[in-house]
# Entry
Amino acid sequence: MKKSKIIMIVGALLLTSLFFLPMWNITLEAPQYPDPIGMDIHINKFEDANPNDIKNINIMNHYVGMKDIPEMIPEFEIFPYFAIGMTILGVLFGLIGNRKLYLVWFALMVVFGSIAMYDFYLWEYEYGHDLKETAAIKFTDEDGKPMVYQPPLIGNKMILNFKAKSWPRLGAYLMFLGMGLSVVAFYRDKKEQNE
Amino acid sequence: MNINKKILSILMALPFLFVIGSCSQGGNGGALGSSVADRVYVPPGEHDEFYAFISGGFSGQLAIHGLPSGRLFKVIPVFSVDAEKAYGFNEETKPLLNTSFGQIPWDDSHHPDLSQTNGEIDGRWCFINANNTPRIARISLSSFETEEIIELPNSAGNHSSSFVTENTEYVVAGTRFSVPIPQRDMPIDEYKGNFKGAISFISVDQETGRFDLSFQVIMPGFDYDLAHPGRGASHGWMFFSTYNSEEASTLMEVNASQNDKDFIAAINWKKAEELIASGDFETMPTEYAHNVYDESTHMATSTMKKEVRVLDASKYPGLVYLLPTPKSPHGCDVDPTGEYIIGSGKLSATLTAHSFTKMLDAIENEKFDGDAYGIPILNYDDIVGGVVQSGGLGPLHTEFDEKGNGYTTFFISSEVVKWKVGTWEVIDRQPTYYSVGHLMIPGGNSRKPFGKYVLAMNKITKDRYLPTGPELCQSAQLYDISGEKMELLIDFPTIGEPHYAAGAPADLIKPNQTKIYKLEENNHPYAAKSESETRVERDGKEVHIYMTTIRSHFAPDNIEGIKVGDKVYFHVTNLEQDYDVPHGVSIIGANTSELLIMPGQTETFVWEPKKEGVWPFYCTDFCSALHQEMQGYVRVSARNSNVPLKWTLDGE
# Structure
């Protein structure tokens, strides 16, 4: 089998790591939490970074009226199908061995990935903005508007006394690597044709 | 331009050099200056190097300090009730203080000792004795809570306790007072020959730590003062200092101080084990309480035991030998190699080091100098390995470093003396302030001492601290012993009487800490493990409230339908699963202490409302920003009222 095909198939199979490894992580740091509290986001669930972290995030957040982090969101039902579908598609494209299909796969991943990130942003927005009317503590920002508690999409951000950190985790990195490999496979195939 | 900059920076650096230079000169100045302060200074947020487990003496408790700072972290309630922690007040811990004499709210805790494996401290448990009503307690070094207390029948003034054998096979506890065994009504002046001393061997389950009073050795009617196990070659033997070999019962300070020599009693407990295993013992009817706290139910239970296995020392040749030792020896300490047994002649100036090798040789060749009630007495000259001519007065207690030195306290001359094991020469002496009792080197009574510090514990402080009326604190003093000379670093006040201590490197204990109790492992019969399980149940005049706490509310927090004359049980489960988030609770007029409930734990207090009205309760531990809002009401109606039982949280 041509090396380019193998690279494409390996790249597609890397997507399956999303079923074992977290994609994303949000961690909250504050002086009185010497062990920061955090949440890993998997393709199908939220998970405590350390035992009871989500419970403790909810306890903390309820004072400003934030809702509990849900156990289940619709995305967790849909995303796994996309991941399986794209894996199968990628492997199939690899077997067919048409390098243009590699780029198609890459493009589809970029599109779906962007949609997923946008969806993630919307969820964060909702989570940070939709506050209970009965909140015990109501802070306002510099302009006198109600304070919002939306975590950063990616990067670090100070939210009151907490430093919120939002970064990809190994599952996402392996997915990025897989996407990269599809591009590598494309050029490799081109080179192989020329030889 | 560049050259100018360079010159400028050199010039700017010069003043710093001067400052640094003068600082180090000041440090070398010697006196009790900043250099000593630095050695005990633990910067904010950093941890001490050692844990010190310092008994509270007549407080009945065990204090946890850090060394070298001396900071106090926790007072673990052991033998006395503690309203702050609800110990002995809540329904869960009351059984721990049960005895064959009923519930006892106080005792006198003396000698903590740590569990060992292969003669080295292992960081599993701390044991401590109750002097007055003889008991031994086991404290978990994961939860830092008292987990077990066993009463000792036939014992009285449980003083030569609690000392742990090399692999924690036994915690050994000797009686101070000899008494009639079994207890009976008899004239006191018939003491001699009739009173006996019981030495208890409590086996320890290596997994759970659970006690079993395995057997007692019944000894002649002396007073048994302190003890230590053999180690290394002498493992399998236990050594007890004795006084009152005169067997006096009155004006003891004179009548028990007449003999030039008393004894160190050497008990061959391996031999005792064989006798027990072969069934060669007597079973004596008696009564004692065995109390166990179960971490899964968060509850203690008390069981009355009805008999004990005894071995009469007079009847079993080879079980016990008596080693003559001057004079009313107090400390009975074994060096890390196990070869020397040091008797501190409380009423003399000398320390006597018996040689274990010589002792075995004398026993083998039956070089006896008479007997006491059939127990062979060895010849002093045959067994003595060396004598420390201390130059001090009233030697009490010796511990050891890993470099072959012994450190002994002298009560009468208020000092610590460092001497060399083997050459018996005195190397250094330093004063204490004042009247030092025991001392402690972390691991200093094991095969592996950590000889960086010695902690001396003083009975009297007089002018050492800000005065606080007639009753003054007692104190502990820390010396650096890493060099040839001992150096006093710091002294700090302690709780009660800092009678005795054990110490361990922090790294041995820190990794095993319990941070929370897992809710899913909470098997308390009255636990409510979520707010949906909260409820109030009436059973005649008894009302059981299944309540929960979480930041920052109780569930339920409005309760109606309670009547005057009811007995109301508040079973409160702390639903928190975060480190260091306890909640507390009490209600107006409760005739008991607050509860202080750790995350995942359930505790219970009883309230018997006496008046109609609406009575508030609140969280007593500052838990959160909304702590002050963490409160609720109970409506109490007349006995004959028809107000239905009702409980709510936020109207739900």
Remarks:
- Chain A has a mean pLDDT of 94.
- The CA atoms of residues 156 and 165 of chain A lie 4 Å apart.
- Chain A is about 50% helix and 15% strand.
